Amino acid sequence: MFYHSSGWETLRDYVLKKYKGLDVFAYFIENRIVPATTGHHIVELKEDYSKGLIIDNIIPVSDESHRKIHMLYRKDKEGIQVMLKRLLKKWNKVNRK
Question: Which helix (H) or strand (E) is 60 found in, with range?
């Protein structure tokens, strides 16, 4: 299964470290500092499996934010996907090294 593969586990751990262990959704949308526990595929695997290990397709989130994002996807999936990609760009712009 994909979510138990070494590739996914390595990438997820890298993403969590890259974003300092923070839930980027909660940080920018809710103005809260919440630890991230997983990575969410912006473009889901069922949509495009080839994006499963693409770093720009993964946003670190908490379990709570992950559930919220999936609920939001039911209302406006494309719009939420655009927003999530913008959040990653915003983070990377602010946190350049």
Answer: strand 58-61
